[in-house]
Design goal:
This protein is an alpha/beta fold and about 350 residues long. It folds into three domains: about 45 residues, Orthogonal Bundle (434 Repressor (Amino-terminal Domain)); about 120 residues, Response regulator (Rossmann fold), CATH 3.40.50; about 130 residues, Response regulator (Rossmann fold). Helix content is about 45%, strand content about 15%. The protein has 14 helices and twelve strands. Strands 2-1-3-4-5-11 form a six-stranded parallel β-sheet. The chain has a six-stranded mixed β-sheet with strand order 7-6-8-9-10-12, sandwiched between helices. Helix 1 crosses helix 2, helix 1 crosses helix 3 and helix 6 runs parallel beside helix 14. The protein is elongated, with a radius of gyration of 25 Å. The termini are far apart. Keywords: DNA-binding, Repressor, Transcription, Transcription regulation. This is HTH lacI-type domain-containing protein. Pfam families: LacI, Peripla_BP_3. InterPro entries: HTH_LacI, LacI/GalR-like_sensor, Lambda_DNA-bd_dom_sf, Peripla_BP_I. One of its GO terms (molecular function) is transcription cis-regulatory region binding.
C-alpha cells in the first residue's frame, strides 16, 4: 500500500508538505506547482487515504458501510431553473429520498479542485455519481474506476457507462415525418450544437435523415444554430420568415419547445397565421407548450421518469455492483396540437 513517504520521495518534497496538501491544511501555503505534482503523484501511485484503507482491511469481516450520499454533476442553473432538467432532477431527488439517500450537487469546478475531487471521489464521500454536465474523458475514466457512475441525457450516450436517455434521432425523425404527413416539403430547423458544432447533435441528424429519406431538399439558410438561446431562435425565425412566401419554409422543426415558442412569437409579429402560413413542432413537452396560442405540437419526453430510472440504475450498481454498462432508452410520444 502506497504511503505518504513514497509520494514525498516521488515529488521531491517533505512528508509534511504532502500531508498538508492532501489534508488541505491552510496553516501554510504550498506552491501551486508543487500541489499539482503531489496530486498527480497521488493519482499515479494509487494512494489510498488512511480511513478508506481501514475500511478495506475491515471489508473481509464486514461489508463496507455506504455513505448513502449521491453526487449530481450539474450546474445549479440546470437543476433549479431549466424546466427540462428540473423535471429530471425531481425524479432523481424524490427516488433517492424514498430510498434513504441524499443528493449532493457538485459542479465541474468542484472536480477541477484537486482537494474537493480527492475528498468527494477518491475518499468516497459519495457512493456514486449522476452525470448531467459534460466532464472530460480523463476525469470520467478516473471517476468510473473508483465509484459507480450513471449518465443522464445526451452527453454520455456514447460513453462506456450506464446511461438513461431517449432516442433523440428517432424522435426528431418522427417530428419531421409528422410535418411531411401534413403536406409540408419546405421545412426549416432550429436547434443547437454540441460546443459550436451542430452536425453531431442527434436531433439534427434525425432531421437530416427524415428529409433525405423523403427526398426533400434541405435549404441551408433555413438551418439555424440558436445555441439553445430563445432570443437567437426568435431573431433567426424573424429573419427567415420575413422572406417572401416562395422563399420561406412552410414548417419549422425546433429541437426544443422553448426554441419553438420563441420562433412562434416571431411569426405572430410578422402577421403569419399558425399553422396555415407556418407550422411548428417541438421536442420536450414543456409545460408552457400546451398554454401558448396556438398550442404547440411536440414530442413528449418522459423527463421525470428519466430521473427515476437513472437513480434506480445507480442504486442498483451501488448495491449489486454489476460490471456492465446499461443503455436505457425511454419511450417518447407525439402530441398533436394546433400548431400543426
Amino acid at each position: 500500500m502506497v504511503r505518504l513517504k513514497e509520494i514525498a520521495e516521488h515529488v521531491g518534497v517533505s512528508i509534511t508538505t504532502v500531508s498538508r496538501v492532501i489534508k488541505n491544511d491552510p496553516s501554510r501555503n504550498v506552491n501551486p506547482d508543487t500541489k499539482k505534482k503531489i496530486w498527480k503523484a497521488v493519482k499515479e501511485l494509487g494512494y489510498i487515504p488512511n480511513e478508506y484503507a481501514r475500511q478495506l482491511v475491515l471489508s473481509s469481516a464486514q461489508e463496507k458501510k455506504h455513505t448513502k450520499r449521491i453526487a449530481w454533476l450539474a450546474s445549479s442553473r440546470l437543476a433549479e431553473t431549466n424546466p427540462y432538467f428540473s423535471k429530471i432532477y425531481s425524479g432523481i431527488n424524490e427516488t433517492l429520498n424514498d430510498a434513504g439517500y441524499t443528493l449532493l450537487l457538485i459542479s465541474n469546478e468542484d472536480l477541477e479542485d484537486d482537494v474537493l475531487f480527492h475528498q468527494i471521489i477518491r475518499e468516497k464521500e459519495v457512493d456514486g455519481v449522476l452525470l448531467i454536465d459534460e466532464v472530460d474523458d480523463e476525469k470520467l475514466t478516473e471517476i468510473k474506476d473508483l465509484i459507480p457512475v450513471v449518465g443522464v441525457d445526451f452527453n454520455y450516450s456514447d460513453h462506456a457507462i450506464s446511461t438513461v436517455d431517449y432516442d433523440r434521432e428517432e424522435a426528431a425523425y418522427q417530428a419531421v415525418e409528422h410535418l411531411i404527413t401534413r403536406g409540408h416539403e419546405k421545412i426549416g430547423f432550429i436547434g443547437g450544437g454540441i460546443g459550436i458544432e451542430m452536425t453531431k447533435e442527434k436531433r439534427f441528424k434525425g432531421f437530416k435523415k427524415a428529409m433525405n429519406d423523403f427526398e426533400l431538399a434541405i435549404e441551408k439558410h433555413w438551418i439555424i444554430n440558436s445555441n439553445w438561446c430563445m432570443e437567437q431562435s426568435y431573431l433567426a425565425a424573424k429573419k427567415i420568415l420575413s422572406e417572401t412566401k416562395n422563399n420561406r419554409p412552410t414548417a419549422i422543426f425546433c429541437a426544443g419547445d422553448l426554441l419553438a415558442i420563441a420562433a412562434m412569437r416571431a411569426a405572430h409579429e410578422l402577421g403569419l397565421n399558425i399553422p396555415s402560413d407556418i407550422a411548428f413542432i417541438g421536442i420536450d413537452n414543456n409545460e408552457m407548450a400546451q398554454y401558448i396560442v396556438p398550442a404547440l405540437t411536440t414530442i413528449s419526453v418522459p423527463q421525470y421518469e428519466m430521473g427515476v430510472i437513472a437513480a434506480k440504475t445507480l442504486m442498483s450498481q451501488i448495491e449489486d455492483n454489476p460490471n456492465m454498462a446499461l443503455k436505457t432508452l425511454l419511450p417518447f410520444e407525439l402530441l398533436v396540437r394546433q400548431s400543426t
